[in-house]
UniProtKB/TrEMBL annotation:
One of its GO terms (molecular function) is peroxidase activity. This is Carbon monoxide dehydrogenase. [4Fe-4S] cluster 1 binds at residues 38, 46. InterPro entries: CO_DH_a-bundle (IPR016101), CODH (IPR010047), HCP/CODH (IPR004137), Prismane-like_a/b-sand (IPR016099), Prismane-like_sf (IPR011254).
Length: 632
């Protein structure tokens, strides 16, 4: 790999060396301490669902125990473990969404929670059939809509409201397969029930249930999370930022926002601009307060405020190791339990704020939506005061950062398309037609969503960056979310200049529309924006999602949330390429079901391919086959 490909590595290398000098451990030390990881766990054939177990069956048919004590075979055990991962992931996305809707329920003209995209709120209210959605008083409507959204989590009857955004053909498939998700919580509960000892053992049925719960995530919880965050905090527009650990500023109070929930992050951003706190920072010798983002909380505030991206999942420890962080403020998800101990080796305050993610050894300042601004003020003040404790001799900030453009919500993409294609027209089209037209014309061969985490089973960011670069070279436009988006950002792929790395067709489109070839669509719940975008293209062309030349890719995923995402993407009709093999290989039957069998149900499959270059070749074959079938 060239240095140019992985500038991020230079960052990591320097800080891992510093960690050794400072005598602190990182994820790579702990990975090494694990030695060889458990083969049974890796194959997914270890079951500890009941206390007759744990039972582990042989991942190789005909060798060793083939059944657990209750008689569950490898297929059942693997399938149960897999769909329980979906339940975990769907619960995380959806519970996050619920907090956003609760904040909207508290919204008032006085703030701090306000309606910032009123037009979107009225659009969704009308979509959900609220009467007089266009005339009702803003906050009366907000509270009514929030209550309706809260019902989506636990309503006793009916299916998810956003399903009707999908093309009719897709909705028909979900109906046929009995996959239309009912209440979000119910689908997750059903999985936990079905996978209890002595319930489902049929792998097709288990996967079906898992997919239904995942659809309750993608078209339910995540979509609610995205849409209601936009209503509350504003729908993202293209904005300039910078990415990588070089955004940490030695002369300022540095605060890392890490986790997933914009409720806390938004008010921290407000508090960081408070004149009293800025004055306090200056009185302590700092030039100001520098809030930087990590993981998806980072993505949320980058998209809406241009807050700089310190890094993605694997960099959370490295940020602290720079010695220049006054506070890491976390909300929920993807936060290493290792951080409090690491922070104590430096002067960094590790502040956790949610009961849902109370982390041992933390400084706990509970965030309450009902007292949001005071809370945030207190947290930021703690960080600022901590500047006095910084040890200059321990500071080492790698000088790497890249310019970044983020903020491509579906609305912003449509807006950009409108500006170019219809500059002469008075009325804007307001649709994705120009995008679907360039795809159908073959100027762009197709589109790919590259998403997901980092995973030390593979070299960090290399999978993301390779897949993205190879795709844009082949005229495939790429949309990114989550840690994949940040990986792209750190090597300068989220810039207008990145068009130089594209094939001719994509380059021309980027020039005309004035967009990067890789569009940052947000955090992981914002994968729902990708569903929305693809659905609009399909509806506009009168086809199903599975007919379109689009692929999903998660080169370095690790979380349960990613399993849920992969599952709803497949269940939505998009072949999904996983660079990390899920823990399912212990069952030939279940592996075949994921890789091929499920195509008969939903028209798409999970593809396992570790090698990013080979994965891209497979994606291109896939895309070209879809084009041929469409006759384009
Ligand atoms: Fe977490 Fe969303 Fe994965 Fe990154 S990409 S490691 S889930 S922060 Ni969602
Ligand atoms: Fe063993 Fe069956 Fe219990 Fe699993 S559910 S631990 S396979 S007895």
């Amino acid at each position: 790999m060239s240095n140019e490909l992985l500038k991020s590595d230079v960052t990591a290398e320097a800080l891992i060396a510093k960690a050794q000098r400072d005598g602190v451990e990182t994820m790579w030390d702990r990975k090494a301490a694990q030695k060889t990881q458990c083969g049974f766990g890796e194959a997914g054939v270890c079951c500890r669902i009941c206390a007759m177990g744990p039972c582990r069956v042989s991942p190789v048919p005909g060798k060793g125990a083939e059944r657990g004590i209750c008689g569950a075979n490898a297929g059942t055990i693997v399938a149960r473990n897999f769909v329980r991962m979906i339940a975990g992931g769907a619960s995380a996305h959806s519970d996050h969404a619920r907090d956003i809707v609760h904040a909207m329920h508290l919204a008032s003209a006085e703030g701090p929670f306000k309606i910032r995209d009123e037009a979107k709120m009225r659009r969704i209210a009308a979509e959900w059939g609220i009467e007089a959605a266009d005339t009702k008083e803003t906050y009366a409507l907000a509270h009514e809509l929030a209550e309706m959204a809260l019902e989506e989590f636990g309503k006793p009857f009916g299916t998810q409201r956003f399903l009707t955004r999908a093309p009719q053909q897709r909705q028909d498939i979900w109906k046929r397969e009995r996959m239309e998700p009912r209440a979000i919580d119910q689908e997750i509960t059903t999985i936990m029930h079905s996978t209890h000892i002595g319930c489902a053992s049929d792998i097709d049925s288990l996967l079906n249930r898992g997919m239904r719960a995942s659809l309750g995530d993608g078209w339910g919880g995540s979509m609610i999370g995205t849409e209601f965050s936009d209503i509350l905090y504003g729908t993202p527009k293209a904005c300039a930022s910078e990415s990588n650990l070089g955004v940490i500023d030695a002369e300022m109070v540095n605060i890392v926002l890490h986790g997933h929930d914009p409720n806390l992050a938004e008010v921290v951003v407000v508090a960081s601009k408070n004149p009293e706190l800025l004055e306090l920072a200056k009185s302590l010798g700092a030039k100001g307060i520098n809030v930087v983002g990590m993981c998806c909380t980072g993505n949320e505030v980058t998209m809406r405020h241009g807050i700089k991206i310190a890094g993605n999942f694997y960099q959370q420890e490295l940020a602290i190791i720079t010695g220049a962080i006054e506070a890491v403020i976390v909300d929920v998800q993807c936060i290493f339990p290792a951080l409090p101990a690491l922070a104590k080796k430096y002067h960094t305050h590790f502040v956790s704020t949610s009961q849902k993610a109370k982390i041992a050894g933390d400084m706990y300042i509970e965030f309450s939506e009902s007292d949001a601004l005071n809370c945030a003020y207190g947290i930021v003040k703690t960080a600022v005061e901590n500047f006095a404790n910084r040890d200059a001799s321990k500071v080492e900030i790698p000088n790497f950062k890249e310019p970044t453009i983020a903020g491509y919500s579906v609305e912003t993409i449509i807006d950009h398309l409108d500006k170019v294609v219809n500059s002469q027209l008075e009325d804007k089209l307001g649709t994705v037609k120009p995008l679907s037209d360039v795809i159908y014309a073959g100027v762009i061969r197709g589109a790919a969503g590259v998403v997901g985490c980092n995973n030390p089973k593979t070299e960090h960011d290399l999978g993301h960056v390779t897949v993205i670069k190879e795709l844009i070279k082949r005229d495939v436009i790429v949309v990114v979310t989550g840690c994949a988006a940040q990986a792209a950002a750190k090597v300068g792929l989220l810039t207008l200049e990145a068009k130089e790395l594209c094939g001719r067709g994509l380059k021309e489109v980027c020039e005309r529309v004035n967009i990067p070839p890789v569009l940052h669509m947000g955090s992981c719940v914002d994968c729902s924006r990708i569903l929305d975008l693809v659905s609009r293209v399909a509806v506009e062309k009168g086809v199903d999602i599975c007919d379109l030349p689009v692929v999903g890719s998660a080169p370095e995923w690790m979380s349960e949330k990613a399993v849920s995402i992969a599952s709803y993407v497949v269940a939505s009709g998009i072949n999904t390429y996983l660079g990390i093999i899920p823990q399912v290989l212990g069952s030939v039957e279940f592996t075949e079901l994921l890789n091929e069998g499920v195509r008969a149900n939903v028209g798409a499959v999970y593809v396992f391919e570790k090698d990013p270059l080979v994965a891209v070749e497979k994606m291109m074959v896939d895309i070209e086959e879809k084009r041929t079938a469409l006759g384009i």
